[in-house]
Amino acid sequence: MSILTELLAFWHAQADKLGQQTLQHIGLTAASLLAGVAVGVPLGLLLTRRPRLAPWVLGGAGVLQTIPSIALLGFLIPVLGIGPGPAILALFLYSLLPIVRNTLAGVQGVDAAVVDAARGLGLTDGQVLRRVELPLALPVLLAGIRTAAVINVGVATLAAYVAAGGLGEFIFGGIALNNPAMILAGAIPAAALALLFDGALAGLQHLSGRRLVWAGRALLLALPLLAGLYLLPRAASKLLAGFSPEFVGRADGVPGLRRLYGLNPASVVLAPALVYEAVRSGNVDLIDGYSTDGRIRAYDLRVLRDDRHAFPPYQAAPVVRRQTLAAHPELAPALAHLAGQLSDSVMTELNYRVDIRHETPRAVAHDFLRRRGLWRAPRSATGSTIRLGSKIFGEQYILAELYAALIKGYTNLGVEAKTGLGGTSICADALRTGAIDLYPEYTGTGLLVVLQPPAAVLDSLGPDPAAVLAYVRREYRRRYQLEWLAPLGFNNTYALLMRRQQAEQLGISSVSELSAYLR
Amino acid sequence: MPAIEARNLTKHYGSHAAVQDVSFRVEAGQTLVLLGPSGCGKTTLLRMLNRLVEPDSGAVLINGQDARSQPAERLRRGMGYVIQQVGLLPHYTVAENVAVVPRLLGHAPAIVAARTEELLARLHLPPERFAGQYPHQLSGGQQQRVGLARALAADPPIILLDEPFGALDPITRASIRREFRELPELRRKTMVLVTHDVTEAFELADQIMLLDAGRVQQLGPPRALLLRPANNFVRRFFAAEQLALQLRALRLEDVLAELQPAGEAHAISSIGSDTKPLSSTASIHDTLEQLSDSPTVVSGEPTVWVRVSETTARPLTHATLMAAFGRALRRLASEG
Lengths: 519, 336
Fold this sequence. Notes:
The complex is a heterodimer of chains A (about 525) and B (about 325).
Chain A lengths: L1 H12 L1 H35 L4 H13 L2 H12 L3 H25 L3 H10 L3 H31 L12 H9 L3 H26 L3 H20 L11 E4 L1 H5 L4 H8 L4 E4 L5 H7 L4 E5 L3 H5 L2 E4 L11 E6 H6 L3 H6 L7 H12 L5 H11 L13 E7 L2 H17 L3 E8 L2 H10 L4 E5 H9 L3 H7 L3 H16 L1 E3 L9 E6 H7 L4 H8 L1
Parallel strand pairs in A: 1-2, 1-3, 6-7
Antiparallel strand pairs in A: 3-10, 4-10, 5-8, 5-9
Chain B lengths: L3 E10 L2 E11 L4 E5 L6 H8 L7 E6 L2 E2 L5 H6 L1 E5 L10 H5 L1 H5 L4 H14 L4 H4 L9 H13 L5 E5 L7 H13 L1 H4 L2 E6 L2 H7 L2 E6 L2 E6 L1 H6 L4 H8 L2 H8 L2 H4 L10 E2 L16 H10 L2 E3 L2 E7 L4 E5 L1 H18 L1
Parallel strand pairs in B: 3-8, 3-9, 6-7, 7-8
Antiparallel strand pairs in B: 1-2, 1-4, 4-5, 9-10, 11-14, 12-13, 13-14
């Protein structure tokens, strides 16, 4: 019940965004469908005349269909950048197979005697196609467009990962923040859209005779109009921001910036992995990032100083189940070897080697331990196994490898890595339920995403790292029987980043200056 | 000049020879039946006439002109085409189906509509009931009638028919065939008809071409194939229905000379006003039907009269007719 009220409240508060995202979603779907029909139908018709090509073309379209949508977007971004381009192209590629296949099947399904009689009566090839084959293939063809439409409404949610908007913005924000109401706020309209497209096209498909032909023409007219929805003007400002879904929703993200700095730039949402590429290529001017990210150095970005402390401290430290610590007293001392060893610059350097130079996290971790004299060859594992979790980005992989090497070198415990857990909430849940024994977490994240204390508590903690660590340690113990061990040393806080060149040009070095510039 | 002439037509599908070196002529207004077992190449041959199949070698001449001298579509619009599966356009009404070719030819809508109504009425499909119906609402026989009307709509001088009655049940088939034969529209048409039904061939053909494995076995009038078969294949092909075919192929005029006793002709005025004498062109088959259905009884025996001149007729009984028929068969076979 509470989730329903939450959902309604969310929709009420975000009504303008919901409307805009829905229109964008319809626009993306219609634009890609239009392209799919414009290419797929002629291609299908060509195949009816050159059946020998059919296995090749259908095979090719089938292969496209099997590429996971996220991967397809990944392939397209280096070529097309971010924005509606790669989103529409990806959706178009997905719509090809059903449309081409059904066009071919529809025409091939026309009674051969009817076609033979039509030819025998003296219809030209074009007339046979227009007056006989196409009208009779239309129900099957429309079924193909219908399949493509439903696929596209679903896949279009991923457009939110490449700054193309759509209802995926709410969904991915909700996933990142473990906020079911926010997920539903995007998922319900998306599902409704899919049903709407499906129902409308099903209605057309069941018309017969002349009305069906008219419906086909009306559809061809409607698609460009719907696609045009995407072009409706959007809010604009001097700089365009590209934010990851989590940052848009969390208290110390966009809402915090608005509260403390009055900062509210026009923004697009895109995948965390893409924000750096987007700002480097100039698709956006301002992004959220992490202060120790290797790409800051590689892409020549400037971290804007958080002069009013919108971002709380994010000290990294291992979080471990108390049961595990009690059962294996040798574990805590092994992990403690890393305490205080990693400064901001050291961590940035390690991240740079993994993210930019593409060294493996394991090689980088082992090399670091050797240089610090902490390396010990793995012992044979005779004890039980420690399950080690990590989130799905480079820094967490490196930390996981560091811990794995320490546990193997200093204890007889075995290690089972469960890396690549989607986000904070997934890691926290896995740890609470005992699916993993430990993972590296950041104090600020534990505070804001997991504990979510009232605003008064947040204000009292302020920007003091020690106070935040003490609070999360106490609360984790009390609520979850989990233990925060000693921090590693670096503070991987959120940061606002700009291209250095542009920031210097505009004379912006802090968030206050940015806010002043935009106002 | 023949309306249709085929010269040395040959067609291969891969290594399989569908049609090998086939030639024939069809005079205007005549009906040629292409007859033969399944796979003998008769349909392929027919489809070469309207270029649905292009021959590997040889030529088709329509009214003396090479069929390839004009676009295939224009050639086809000048020939009616009827197939076994009918192939009505399922999304067109009956009237629209009939009007397809006249519309392609750009005839005025009013003329097309009038012509459609006229044809439907003549084929026993009252337009007020059938014009607006769709093909799936019709029975098989009705569909085939619409198919025939469609082929006739633009009044083409040539009609090609591929097993047009093949998909119908025997009773419907017989009745549609009768209508077909009696249709005034078809009297003047040059027709080529494909069938594997021997009876149908004898009923409709001026000339029959019997094919086997893509080769002509015999080409000639029905009675020539029957009475003077060119080879064993022809003989065997007709063997099962030999007698029935002979009864259809021979006419009274063939057997009159064999009548014994060569009795006197009677004045028509003397044989009773309720009796109508048969023409001497009636087939033996029809005469036998008349004998069993509505004979006059003369001295206790069922009798029919056959006209032998303007004013005279001769009596025929079962016995005299069949005896003469037997002698005529022997004579015709020996004349070979």
